[in-house]
Design a protein that fits this description.
The protein is an alpha+beta fold and about 120 residues long. It has one domain (about 5-120): 3-Layer(aba) Sandwich (Endonuclease, Chain A). Helix content is about 45%, strand content about 20%. The protein is built from five helices and four strands. It has helices at about 5-15, 20-30, 70-85, 95-100, 105-115; strands spanning about 40-45, 50-55, 60-65, 90-95. The protein has a four-stranded mixed sheet, with helices on both faces. A hairpin with a 4-residue loop joins strand 2 (about 50-55) and strand 3 (about 60-65). The longest helix is centred in the middle third of the chain and has 16 residues, at about 70-85. It is globular and about 30 Å long. It starts with a helix and ends in an 8-residue tail after the last helix.
Length: about 120
Amino acid sequence: MRQTRLMTKRARSLRRELTDAERKLWYALRAHRLAGLSFRRQEPCGPFIADFLCAEARLVIEVDGATHSTEDEIAYDRRRDEWFVANGYRVLRLTNAEIYRNLDGICETILAAAHPRFSTHT
């Protein structure tokens, strides 16, 4: 699916408006800080915008806050996840609380999801 100007504009806007949890995670992921992996934030991918995307590992990270709690929002998230999986991506969903509570553990989880060789649990 071709990226539209509207989607590009929306992604740029989302990059400027990161939540505190997204900002904290981005600090850990940016500039190849996590095992040299390259992540992009608020990245258009097909018909959706992924919170964080590692193209080389085909990994999408979604950060869920309070706006992911209604039945409609949960159903929308499920459709997004299904699209990503159907298109060869793994999806890792994290909550704001998890990021605040255990960023080091989250980073280990991301490494394990990105590729088994990055995992510290061998």
